[in-house]
Amino acid sequence: MFFRRITMASVVFVFSCSTANLDVKEKHDILFSQSGVLGEENNLSSINNAKENANSYEIEKRQEIDDIYLLLAMSVVYKNWQSVNVLKENRRGHNIGGVLVGPDLKPIFWARNARHATKNASQHAEVRIVSSYLMCPGTPSYLANNYTLYSSLEPCLMCTGMLSLTRLDRAVFAQKDTGYGDVDKRLLLDTSNIGGYSPYPNVVQLQSHSSGWTNELNAAYKSWKLLDRKNISITDWLLSDNAEIHFRKSEQRLLNYRSEYENEDILSAAINYLQLVTVEFEKDLSKFCPE
């Protein structure tokens, strides 16, 4: 490294002394075509910049995929929206839903919360999606190979545990659950140094998606809760007209989406899959098993 610095300094010194009467372009040509030293560093810098740009593009491309499939999850819910005017015993369940996306980045299963219609409090959307899909013919026993679940609401303790035990790689959600969220952080909490417990193994990676529309969604609930409704849960807000507006906008966003990162095939798959989602409540989801 020391020798390299001396060499570079020598090149610059000789270059300065021997090109005093040349114009800027001639100096530039001599420096980068004959010295080789600075040219090499410039090439390395260009390569590194190209790699950084490529990595940045792939990250943004993946974020756009997440954006599209979260809009699909929101649209799945909106297609069977439950109003506060419907009696509780006549409701399907909470206005929560999701979509499972396979290793090929195509949607393969969907479900909505159905705790009231099934009279079963365990029938959250995530549970219905994973348990139903894994019962389909030819499906694996675990979701360990690049499956992603997209949910309109952050998974609860039960759903996070189920997703972890089935080895799901990643779950992405649109709305933060301020009451029952951050389950992954709690499961990963290490208190062994004070006589407690080690982190739970194989915890699913829960990711909050940040975009303009998800920020609006979370801000809407926060504002609504501040209006003297401090003891009202997020599922109550999800019955409100205010919430319905955001879910309706999500469907419109999906149908009018324009990809900026060459995800037209993903967008087309999401819109086409939405057509397969029924308006009516479906107790038996086996009919939606992928062929």
> What is the element string, with H for helices and E for strands?
HHHEEHEHEHEHHHH
Query: How would a crystallographer describe the biggest sheet?
Result: 5 strands, mixed
Number of domains: 1
Q: Can you tell me the overall shape?
A: globular
Helical percent range?
40-55%
Q: Could you name the ranges where pLDDT drops below 50 across 5 or more consecutive residues?
A: 1-35
Structure description:
This protein has helices spanning 2-18, 24-33, 37-78, 125-134, 157-165, 183-187, 212-226, 234-237, 241-255, 264-274, and strands spanning 97-101, 107-112, 148-153, 170-175, 205-208. It has a single domain (54-288), classed as 3-Layer(aba) Sandwich (Cytidine Deaminase, domain 2), CATH 3.40.140. It has ten helices and five strands. A hairpin with a 5-residue loop joins strand 1 and strand 2 (107-112). Strands 2-1-3-4-5 form a five-stranded mixed β-sheet, with helices on both faces. It has 291 residues and is an alpha/beta fold. Helices cover 47% and strands 9% of the residues.
Quick structural overview:
This protein is α/β, with parallel strands linked by helices.
Descriptors for this entry?
Cytidine Deaminase, domain 2, 10 helices, alpha/beta, 47% helix, globular, disordered N terminus, five-stranded mixed sheet, 291 residues
Topology:
Elements: H1 2-18, H2 24-33, H3 37-78, E1 97-101, E2 107-112, H4 125-134, E3 148-153, H5 157-165, E4 170-175, H6 183-187, E5 205-208, H7 212-226, H8 234-237, H9 241-255, H10 264-274
Parallel strand pairs: 3-4, 4-5
Antiparallel strand pairs: 1-2, 1-3
Keywords: Metal-binding, Zinc
Organism: Simiduia agarivorans (strain DSM 21679 / JCM 13881 / BCRC 17597 / SA1)
Pfam family, one: dCMP_cyt_deam_1
